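User: quick one
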Amino acid sequence: MKAWLTHHLHSLKIAAQRFRDAPLATLLTILVIGVAVAMPSGLYVLLSNLDRAAGGVKPQIELTLFLKTDVPENKSKALAADLAKQPDIAGVVFISKAEGIRKLEAAGLSDITAGLPENPLPDTLILTPQQTNPEALDALYNRLTKLDTVQQVVMDADWVKRLTALMGLGKNLVLLLAALFGLALAAITANTIRLQIYAQQDEIEVAQLIGATDRFIRRPFLYYGGIQGLVGGIAGWLILLLGGALIESSVAQVATAYGASFTLNSLNLAELIPLLGLSTLLGWLGAYFSVNQALRQFAN
Amino acid sequence: MIELSDVTKRYPGGHEAVSGLNLTIDQGELVFLTGHSGAGKSTLLKLIAAIERPTNGHVVVNGQNVGRMKRPALPFFRRNIGLIFQDHKLLYDRSVFDNVLLPLHIQGMTGTDAAKRVRAALDKVGLLKKEKTRPITLSGGEQQRLCIARAIVSRPALVLADEPTANLDDAYARDIMDMFRAFNEVGVTLVISTHDQELIHRYGGRSVNLAYGKLVT
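Assistant: Done. Structure below.
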């Protein structure tokens, strides 16, 4: 157990030594990994902020029910009262035929209304739904159109659907970007490790000749790859923080222009830890791949 | 201890470095492999250490069929053999002490026990005072002795040396041969390749003569 521990410590020391031996190359690699990490996580942060912003602006969606003209007013009122009790409806406003014509007159259309032989307007109900997600709205819409007394239901919810669709697209984009940049991260690590293996070729050969197992040879490289991934991940996080700080004031300006107060959020701990874990894992994997390739090549 | 039966090693391209060789080496023997350069001395040593695999025939060391050994088993097999190379194969990025420590480290031995054994090995080859220096500052003879210290630090029962006295002047060569004889006296089996006939006459031991990959008797 103690030997095993000293062994790992020693491998860690070797890995640290290799970082110190080539500080500039290490710095550049970490920067590249940092950018690779910052790209998808930056988009992710942007999206989650947008999502939050969209959630904050509760859209006022209304459904307008035009009832059939032959429905008597007391029946219309009963329907309004009935709908108001339903759980997915937040509010109902009843506008009678007479009220409708008065509103038209008030709007300056009295010339037209005066020439009409009788009031052609139906009783109208304006509903405010409880939920604004597209599925709930569609369900409500379908239910309302099936009512006997209802002539027509008008709902303007297209922009909600569009926003939701755009958000979904954005989320898929984050996943795609994350996969691509993750691959890039592993490839970068594999390449730096490959260069290192060439530099350490003598050592690997000697170690193999005097009885080192593959695992023994692999270990310092794996530590190197893992640490590089971790530090690169931290660099990516710092890039994100820096980028956030740079655009913060302009975001605030935009928010004020829309009459809202909004602060930019960065990654929280529950998001940061998996991110760093992932970048470490990818660095480790890249190193593993590279060393195994090399060990098979030497193979004596 | 070592048994080669009908061993042939053919390299890609058709060159046969060793052809149909039969040889048995007992435990505790001191064997010199002689012959012109290209006679197959190095290849024979590599076959015994499982650095090369035979094209035909069997190489059995300590009851293990070396030619058929699986890759994961190789490191553990090699730990029982001390290898001394003509070109030393030292690591120049670390101290003399750390070079000798490497085999012990590979076997999972660390701390004061390991340090003691490293110093004992360095003492045997007369390099104890240079443990902190880098191998590059050592003379050719000293580098060869360092290579020997690394080969014996894990106390192997078998030591294979490929031209250990080549490129060394006579006094150094005699030094090293004295060392080998001392190992042999404590029971270590030694197989040493050399083209220095005079050395063999002086030290006795068994002499195996190779020519064009075959035994000459």
